[in-house]
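Lab notebook: predicted structure, single chain.

Context: the supervisor wants predicted structures on file for every construct in the current expression panel, including those that have not yet been purified. This is the next one on the list. No modifications to the sequence; it matches the entry in the shared construct table.
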Amino acid sequence: MNTGKMFDTHMHTRFSTDSRMTIEEAVRQGKKLNLGIIVTEHMDLDYPEPQAFIFDIDEYFRTYERFRSETVRLGIELGMRCDLIEENRELLVGRPFDYVIGSIHLIDRIDIYQEHFYHGRTKREVYGQYFESMLACVKDYDFIDSLGHIDYIARYARFADTEVRYEEFPDYIDAVLRALAEQEKAIEINTRRLDDDAAAEALCAIYRRFHELGGRLVTIGSDAHRPQDIGKHFDRAMAIARSCRLQPVAFKARQPEYIAL
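Prediction complete. Output recorded below exactly as produced.
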């Protein structure tokens, strides 16, 4: 199915532990920018800090259902872990989500935001573990729609060079991209780091490789936690999609709708 409207497919409001943005602010900013929006609240089951990064899904729908429309959709960002596959799958059963992002936030029950995750380890060791965890989850989480921010670790790693470079980890990255392509899943162009030319260049190499391995669909999301970040760097993201011959999509009732390039 085609939709002419651009969507920001990744953002967090007050149901996410780390966001204070209201749904009203998000809807208002979407209208201002002529963007559709998909709210994707954080759900990281068994997070090390009690009651953090989880939310009441039924309350979420009760509260936000009245905002749902052709341009406002309701999703979730699942923190993927291999020890919680069935628990995460069960969260979706019978719930009317439009869209499900699968992301890697924790490894060995440690949030990769935490500095001690990197102590005494090389970039090769840490990033290798990151991609091994990602691959295992992508293979098992056949119920997600898109893989979120493949470069998430680059935001927080404690190395002189944190960039996720294809040429440094080709076997790991190929395995992840091939698994996504074989399942006909999308990969996200997360725009949070696209103001950095080096990051954009490194990501382009990964997205080009995704197409070479048979991948076709991308979602574009700002990962906004504030209204002013909604739609940020979307021109650059669309340019990347075009140059890598990937089709941007937005999900509705778990089905992809094409966004005009």
